[in-house]
Amino acid sequence: MKVYIPKAVLFLHAFPLCFDMFSEQFKLLKENNIPYIALDYPGFGEEPPSRMKPDIENLTDYVVSKIDAFGVEKIVPVGVSMGGYIIFDMWKRYKDLIEGMVLVSTRAEADTQESRKARYELIEKIRIEGKEILINVMLENQTSPVTKENPKKMRKLRCMMERASEEGLVNTLKALAERPDNREILSSIDVPVLVIAGKDDDKITPPKVVKEIAEGIKGAEYKELENCAHLPPFENPKAFNKLLMSFLKRIF
After folding, report:
1. What is the chain's mean pLDDT, rounded?
2. Cβ(8)–Cβ(70) under 8 Å?
């Protein structure tokens, strides 16, 4: 049986986490009776790895198939990091689904040659040494000083990362390395957009990089949040939820 839901928020998690990173946002939306969908990508959280070709387009098709299965007609995607790359691809190929978007700690440009090389080197390290090497790097690079001082939060992040399979990590690193440049589509985005950066994100998506997205989208709102780096919904949920709720009230 298929349930019809006119409109829902879609949560798209960061690499190498799972949808549990949005646990505080789930509480917020439940309190405000706003429907939402949250899913894990293949090889992350509870989702087994997939045999599909590792690219952003196939990940997008996977996400859209889940949306259709839930009977949702319109979505407001909230994408963190690689979740933003999926939103950009959705806009290219499934824009009729989208009524607004929240882009968090992401970038519009493709990997540089140096970044792409680093991803493939990391793939080889995972194959030789296991996924722990990636987890340690991500825990260091994705979090702010305030988050690092919170043992409970750091343990929770590690637990989410450990749930990812090595196959899922390798496939997704390939997809990230080969993703297209999305800067040319920014001017075509004509739905409400909220862009959020973490002020302490100096290693993955610095605020000036994230801000370029907002500058390329007419009417986009840009915000920087303190006490968080690459994972604002998880690191500073109180401030993030305030921004998110203000944005969603305009759409729902």
Report:
1. 96
2. yes
